[in-house]
Amino acid sequence: MTVTLTRDWTYRTPLLTVDYPAGEHDMPAEHADAARAANVIEEKRIGNRTGKAVPPSGADGAES
């Protein structure tokens, strides 16, 4: 998965440490998910919307 990091970031687990400098990188989805959770991924803008996924309405199980 190719992502653009807004700043230097390090992916860490007990068995693995990977340093990523700011910029575009091809990384495993697990690393990209962790970077997204750390809020260091530059989200693509589409008009006045971001590329962030939004669940469809009603996806939370609540009845209308």
Q: Write down the overall geometry.
A: globular
Return the average pLDDT rounded to an integer: 83
String of helices and strands: EEEEHEE
Query: Which percent range describes the beta-strand content?
Result: 25-35%
Major beta sheet, strand line-up: 1-4
**Major beta sheet, specifics?**
2 strands, antiparallel
Indicate the low-confidence ranges by residue numbers.
none
Helix content: 10-25%
Task: Enumerate how many helices there are, as a single number.
Answer: 1
Total DSSP E strands: 6
Please characterize this protein's 3D structure.
The chain has 64 residues and is α+β, with helices and mostly antiparallel strands. Helices cover 14% and strands 31% of the residues. The protein has 1 helix and 6 strands, in the order ββββαββ. The strands form 3 sheets. A two-stranded antiparallel ribbon has the order 1-4. Strands 2-3 form a two-stranded antiparallel sheet. It has a two-stranded antiparallel sheet with strand order 5-6. β2 (9-12) and β3 form a beta hairpin. The longest helix is centred in the middle third of the chain and has 9 residues, at 29-37. The radius of gyration is 15 Å and the shape is globular. The relative contact order is 0.22.
How would the blueprint of this fold be written?
Elements: E1 2-5, E2 9-12, E3 17-20, E4 23-26, H1 29-37, E5 45-46, E6 49-50
Antiparallel strand pairs: 1-4, 2-3, 5-6
